[in-house]
Amino acid sequence: MATPPVPRRRPGAVPVAALAGLLVLLTLAALALGSSTPGGLQDQGPVRTVTPPPVPQTLWPGLDASPAPTPPATGTGAGGTTQQPPQPVPGVTVPGQGVTALDLRAVLANDPAVSTEERLALGSCSGCEVRSPEFRDLTGDGRISLITAVITPGPVVLHVYTPAEDRLLPVLRVQVQRTFNAETIGSDLWLYESTGLYVRTSSHYQWDGARLVLLERKDEGLGVLPPTGPDPAQPDKATKSAAPAAPPAPPTATPSAGAAAPSPRAPRPPSQSSQPSAPAVSPEPKR
Fold it and tell me: Which of 177, 182, 195, 262 might form a disulfide with 59, Cβ 3.0–4.6 angstroms?
């Protein structure tokens, strides 16, 4: 039986497997060159989440700027002394819902630091008021604090309470003016009080792990400078009290150089009598 003839390869023909391998190599080389080319797209991993900065949140926006503030009654600040950790308010238990479920007047009534004038404001008192509670995270760990202000005919006191497990801690008590501005920026508390017509005092409080402490207190201008110099609507005192100046004397003629100065006239003697004198009579000649 005859052996079948072996097919001959045409000159220049390339096997299909070699072509496929060459294409794969070219593709890998193109990818490698593209990834190393400057400006090419590269995978840098997952995109990081951008956290916006904290936004100021006003407390009791109906309150206006006030006169000079008084120093804080509690807390530590610049130059202050370290105090003992706050003690829980006796007789007050924080329920599972947190401080939002507490009776505010019961909290103030049980707080030993509340003054006698403040206790009068808890009842019916003329000119007294207990501000509605505000709830903010002032500790930075998610615990919501209770903020209120007690207004009496005399002082006005700002109170801040924060929970510690099932107990309630008074972490700030500071006396302020009747009208003031307050806000929170993140977990920081800011109080704004006017120290004059053109100056505002800012008090910055921050949580130190046990209470809210005064970090700094600074004065800042309100953008309007006080007038300097005399009031243009009021006349100057020196001008007002000065006597009117006398009119200047008329100018006199000055003789030119070399001219003879006129001799002064002798004054005319006054007449002896206002009546005209009689004519003189001459004697008649003798004949």
Answer: 182
Residue 176 Cα to chain centre, angstroms: 17
* Whole-structure pTM value: 0.56
**Mean pLDDT of the region 47-60:** 79
3-class SS at 75?
A: coil
Convert the pLDDT of each residue in 4-40 to its tens digit: 666 565 555 556 677 777 777 877 776 666 555 555 5
C-alpha 225, offset from chain centre:
15
Structure tokens at 65: 């700027």
Give residue-wise pLDDT tens across range 201-210. Answer: 899 999 999 9
Which region holds residue 223: left if phi is over 0, alpha if psi is between -120 and 50, else beta? left
Write out the H or E segment, with its range, that includes residue 50.
none
Closest by CA position to 150, among listed 190, 112, 108: 108
Evaluate if residue 109 carries a pLDDT over 80.
yes
b (16+ CB within 10 A) / e for 123-156? eebeebebbebbebebbeeebebbbbbbbbeebb
DSSP β-bridge partners for residue 206: 213
Other beta carbons within 10 angstroms of residue 85's beta carbon come to: 11
CB 132 within 8 Å of CB 70: no
